[in-house]
Write a structure and sequence with these properties.
Layout (H helix, E strand, L loop, with lengths): L3 H30 L4 E14 L11 E11 L2 E6 L14 E6 L7 E3 L4 H28 L5
Antiparallel strand pairs: 1-2, 1-4, 2-3, 4-5
Length: about 150
Amino acid sequence: MSTDFWNMSCVMMVLGLVFVLGGVILNGYAARQRRYRGHAEAKVVDIITEPRSDAFALSQFRNRQLAVFEFYADGRPVKVKDKGDPYPSPYKMNQKIQILYNPENPQEYCVAKRDRWKLLAGCLNTAGVLCIVCGCILFLMYAARIEL
């Protein structure tokens, strides 16, 4: 009986476990890199126009448009203004966005962006699960004494 399937199944299982472990480590790293721990879905409830200050006050666009976000932090509604300085606001009314905020002070927030570490962790976890499933199939082929 050939042990090729046995060897390949062991290699795939170990490789899958290494991938899954790498994904878990990257997920933990991504969580530690986040600036704020609170997470909420915010809604754009208003877009207001304010005069610019500082160096941008002399530009051709003397005003800036700010989105007003509303979200719930620990069951309390919170309204905050966008921190950006674009003239046409990149947000639309009633648009929903993901917000990360400080649980102690919900006025401190940032708009959540795509996290490349979390994306890479998801890819590693998927590859790990596929390797483990492939290893199981190879082991079952070995156990069924299939010869090629």
